[in-house]
Write a structure and sequence with these properties.
Keywords: DNA-binding, Phosphoprotein, Transcription, Transcription regulation
Pfam families: GerE (PF00196), Response_reg (PF00072)
Low-confidence stretches: none
Radius of gyration: 25 Å
Helix content: 55-70%
Mean pLDDT: 92
GO biological process, one term: regulation of DNA-templated transcription
CATH topology of the largest domain: Rossmann fold
Number of domains: 2
CATH class of the largest domain: Alpha Beta
CATH superfamily of the largest domain: Response regulator
Shape: elongated
Structural class: alpha/beta
Distance between the termini: 67 Å
Strand content: 5-15%
Protein name: LuxR family two component transcriptional regulator
CATH architecture of the largest domain: 3-Layer(aba) Sandwich
GO molecular function: DNA binding
Number of helices: 10
Largest sheet: 5 strands, parallel
Order of helices and strands: EHEHEHEHEHHHHHH
């Protein structure tokens, strides 16, 4: 039997999903929690095979609860089951240590299969999550060096292209000379060039200077 701890702050969701999972011949619900804090306590006490974790909950959200569980029990297998597909939820949850990520719009049997797959060491991602991650990876691969510059670094680069010295840049931007030097160093590093001249050439080559 695959022992499951189900964490969700909506009682009706817990009742419905628990009823279906309990009807499976190889899955047993060994505990339920309605907030992240309780989830951490129960996970560390019960040591279930799988933890189904909601994200938005009172007292402690699912991401923080996942972090705390993984810190204390690195072998824990956590499946995020949520309604959220936005980046600020997906990536932090996976970085926190979640093994799989499913949406509440998934069919009940898909959740059950995700439990089985995760139990046997696989990572299951909702197709929409996979597509989102692939799109982000492709976008990141296509980024040009200057796209990594901060707004302030871009300002400094454009002033460099105007032939201004570090002191003149500091005076125009109302920042310390030391700060300008740090920005210049960061710019050279991010653009992969050796000196100011090469940085300025890069700026003109990529039409950054109007």
């Amino acid at each position: 039997m695959i022992k499951v701890l189900f964490v969700d702050d909506h009682e009706m969701v817990r009742i419905g999903v628990s009823a279906f999972l309990s009807s499976q011949p190889d899955i047993e619900i060994v505990g339920e929690a309605d907030n992240g804090k309780k989830a951490v306590e129960m996970a560390l006490n019960l040591r279930p095979d799988i933890i189904l974790m909601d994200l938005v909950m009172p007292e402690m959200d699912g991401i923080e609860a996942t972090k705390k569980i993984i810190q204390e029990w690195p072998e824990a297998k956590i499946i995020i089951v949520t309604s959220f597909l936005d980046d600020e939820k997906v990536y932090p949850a996976l970085e926190a240590g979640a093994a799989s990520y499913m949406l509440k719009t998934s069919k009940a049997n898909e959740i059950a299969n995700a439990i089985r797959a995760t139990y046997y060491g696989q990572s299951v991602l909702e197709p929409e999550v996979t597509n989102k991650m692939m799109a982000k990876m492709r976008k990141k691969e296509k980024r040009l060096p200057h796209e990594e510059l901060t707004n302030r670094e871009m300002e400094v680069l454009l002033l460099m292209a105007q032939g201004k010295t570090n002191q003149e840049i500091a005076d125009e931007l109302f920042i310390a000379l030391k700060t300008v030097k740090v920005h210049v160093s960061n710019i050279l590093s991010k653009l992969g060039v050796q000196d100011r001249t090469q940085a300025v050439i890069y700026a003109f080559k990529h039409s950054l200077v109007k």
